[in-house]
Every structure is written in C-alpha cells, then in structure tokens.
Amino acid sequence: MSTAVAVTGRAPAGERFVARAAAATAVLTAAGALAGLLRDQLVASLFGADGATDAFLVSWTVPEVAATLLIDEAMALVLVPAFSLALAHGTHGGVRGLIRATLPRLLLALAVPTAALAAGAPLVVGVLAPGLPDPALAVDCTRLTAVTLLTFGVAGYFSAALRAHRSFLPPAAIHLSCNAGIIGTALACHALWGVRAAAAGVAFGGLLMVLVQLPFFLRIRLRAPRRRPAPHAVAVPALLSVALPVALFALARQSQVLAERFLASGLPPGAISCLNYAQKVAQLPMVLAMMICTVTLPLVARAVAAGDLERARRRVERDLVAAGVVVLLGAAYVTALAPQIIRLLFERGAFDAEATAATAAVMRVYALGLLGHTLTGALVRPFFSAGRPTWFPFAAMLPGLLVTVAGGLVAVGPLGAPGIAAANAAGITLTALLLLRGLATRTVPVDARRLLGRFARLAAAALAAAAAGWATAPPGPSPLPALALGCLVVPAVFALAARVLRVPGAVLLPAVLTTRIGNLKQRSHHAR
What we know:
The chain is 81% helix and 0% strand. It is mainly alpha-helical. Helix 7 (135-145) packs parallel to helix 11 and helix 18 runs parallel beside helix 20. The longest helix is centred in the middle third of the chain and has 38 residues, at 309-346.
C-alpha cells in the first residue's frame, strides 16, 4: 500500500521514476527560462526601455500575479496533495470525483475576475502605476493580458493533476509554450500593433499553456474509473481551507513587485523596464536553485505525512544548503559582471548604453536578495506539504512586505530604482529568516542556527568570488572575454573560499545541481 511505502521510506519504483523524470524536467525548465530570456531580449530590442515598455510591463503584472498564484505556488501546493491523497487510497477511485467537484467551480471562479479585470482596466492601471505618461496604452495591454487569469488557472490545475499522477514533462513545458507564443506574436505583429503585440502574445501564450497539457489531462481523467470517491476523499471545503492561506501568502509575496512598480512609476520613463530586466536576469540562478527543492518536494511531503520528521529534517537541510550554494554562486557572477551580462543580452536596437548602465546597477542590488528569495520559495514547501492549513508563511511575509514598501518610499527619492531594489532585497531576506525560524519550531525541526552559519560562510565565499570576478574582468568593447573568464574565475574562487571556510559539500560546486537531480534515485533510498 502507498501508506506502507510512505512509512518505510522505500518506494524504489517511484523514486526511480522521479529521478528519471527530473533530468527531462530540468531540460524543459531550462529551455523555458532561456525562452523567457529571449522574450525579454526581443521586447528590449523592439521597444527599448521607455514609456511604451513601461506600459506593457504594468499589464505584465497580471500574468505575473496569476503565474505565482495559479501555477507556481498556490495551485500546486493545494492540489498536488489533494490529487495525491485521492490516488493514495485505492488507485484512481477519487480522481474523477475530485475533478468533477473542483474544475467547474474553478472555471467559474476564474471567469468572473477575468471579465471584471478587462472592464476595470483603467482603474487597475491607475492604482498600479499612477505616474505613467501614457495610461491608455497600459489599459489596452491590461485588457489583453486579463485573459491569463483564466488560462493560467486552468494550466495550473492541469499541472497539479499531472504532477500528482507522476506526469512531469507536460507541466515542465508550459513556460516554454507561453514564451513561444509571446515571441511569435510580437515578431509577427509589432509593426502593426506596437507594444500591444507583446500583450496579445501573452494572451496567446496562456492558451498554449492549456493546450500543451490538455491531451495528457484528458488521458488521466478518462483512465479514472466511474465510481464514487472513497469516504476519505478530499472535500472541497477542506481544499478551500488549505488554499486560502497559500493564496494569501502568494499574493503577499507578489505584492513586492506591485510595490516596486507603483514606486517606479513616478521615476523617469524606463525605470520600470530597468527593474524588470534586472530582476529577470538576476533571478535565473534562483530558478536553477529552486529546481532542487521542486524535484524533492514529494519526498519531503511523504516524510511529513508519515510523521518521520527526522528524515524530513535531513532532506530539507540538504536541499536548503544545496540551493544556497547554487544561488550564491550565481549571485557572485551577476554582481561581478552585471554590465557585461546586460550588454550581451540586451544592448541592441532601442536598448542603448544608457539603459545598459541603469539596468546593470539595479541588477547588482537585486543580487543581494537572491538568497532570501530562494530560501523563501524553498521554505514554504515543507510548511504546506502536509496538506493542512497554516497561516505562518503569510504572517512571515507581511513584515517583509512592510520593509519593502517603507524602505522603497524612503530610498526611491535619493537612490531611484536601485533604492527600490535594495528595499526588495531587505524585505525578502527578513521573510526568509522568519520562515526558517518558524519551520524549525512548527513543522520540520531543522537546525536554524547551523543553517544560518553555513549561509553566512557561503555568502562570504560569494563575496570573495564576486570581487575576484570583477577585478579580473578584461576591459574592451566585447563583453564575451570578461564573461568567459568569469565562468572560470568566479566558481574557482567560490569553491576555494568555501573550502577554506569549511562549508560542507560546497567545494563540489560545479556538479551540485546535476548531482542533486541526477543522483536522486540513489540518494533517496538512504533518506530515512
């Protein structure tokens, strides 16, 4: 039985499947991230970093919030345990009933705010960015992107159901599909529609996210027997009680971005664009680091559900340190070579040298908060993995949001966009510290003091690596020599400093990510 498997911690067939799927998932996730980078390059090249791009990025707030709430966090953290529970008690008996009870209600719950957002777009734009020079353009773009509330919600539902059925590849392909839709529409229609073409591409990309998963979702639904759910099947009220704190946490976290754009709307045109491009590039290391915690989430959830907190503690601590290694190495590289990275990626077409300098300055500040962002995303997973309502993550997010808003109000005047980024970094770091302390006392008894010591030593190694990368970067018109040399210098200095500071496992940094994913099959058998 599945329960016995959870208690013993064996499940060899399941672990082997996760290990095999993780490699293919990593490839598709990386492809989606690269497509997102290409999307940002295209938007920068076609429209630059000016008021028109700012208008599009205000409308981009809608799919950003929808992705966080309906795909990346809330939907997955609620529905993956629900579908897993339906499957855990007697094959597929409860799956059809769960779909019948939840999917129609979800469609209705998403259709109403989608229509309301399209109708109320002028009010939304006025609240989000009152200082925009051309609010009418932002209103048009917001009406186009409003449909993502519906399409992203359905895509997130399909993703949760498929992951619970151990079908990982279609959900991993959704971001690649969405970015392909944005890129294709922008290229085809920008001459006629201007930046509205990018917003139309977002709407089309959301539809592709649904379509790429639809055949696989229909297959699992049709495979489920037509019978009444078991008495212990998950009830809709129970799902809602779990969903509310998850949704509020996700909204509070995404409110950091809303606060940034609100504050930046009063700065000269292009400030919102610089913040956006800097954040997207700086967070690429976080995407890689979070992959570790994503593929091991089923193992943590199984250990928590079985009451094996010691096994869960070991797994969570290893994952947190591994994620910290990856993200801090990336932060060191970003800090050392920010101008060269932005010049290589974006400086073409309407994106000039002045925009490069402004974006690179913001990106270096954003790098200070990468560890906090990664730990926040990683730490909430154990909180919600038990499938029970918990309000602590939302409560921990509120002080961080307050620091972001208050710090941004203070810093935006003298420092401009870098001041907003600094407030973001301070706020999310505070939230990460609160979550780490709360996890140790409320859910999984991790050794918070030991983890903080390791993170501090890793941060010192990253500082040394960033300084070495900056000092050895050769000047010149082309950024490629500096970036290539940095790929050698920054990891080498980081690994050496980590060895000197005695950080366990960090000296094997070049292989950390591939080892954690590729060897999950072998290591999971020893994670008791």
